[in-house]
Amino acid sequence: MWWIVWLVLVVAGAGLLALLGYGLWRRVKALGRELRDLSGAVERLESASAVVPEPGTRHRPGPLRDPATLASARATRERVAQERDEARTVRLARAVARWRALKLLE
Asked: Keywords of this protein's UniProt record, alphabetized (predicted)?
């Protein structure tokens, strides 16, 4: 009769070992995929670093170089600031509406 108990224990142990091995195999495969993607990203960064100017050289638009570039940069900065202000206003309006629905502002 004890042999049935030992048989169940051995089969359960083998099944548990198989499940742990399968989980480990899946994680190792996922790690391999991540490393492959990481190596691709490193290659892209290395190829992009050839395009980036040296750290000592700076692009200075405006009076020293190109006035059109300075105007474009200012227009872009103003547009981004306006978009951020609009997004902030929309978020605040949604929050106030949510607070009023929960009767937190009364």
From this structure: Membrane, Transmembrane, Transmembrane helix
> Which residues have C-beta within 8 Å of that of residue 53, sequence separation ≥ 6?
59
Residue 66 CA to residue 96 CA, distance in Å, equals 45
**Residues 18-58 pLDDT 10s:** 999 999 999 999 999 999 989 888 888 877 666 655 666 56
Per the listing, tokens 């480990």 go with 24
Buried b (16+ CB within 10 A) or exposed e, 66-86: eeeeeeeeeeeeeeeeeeeee
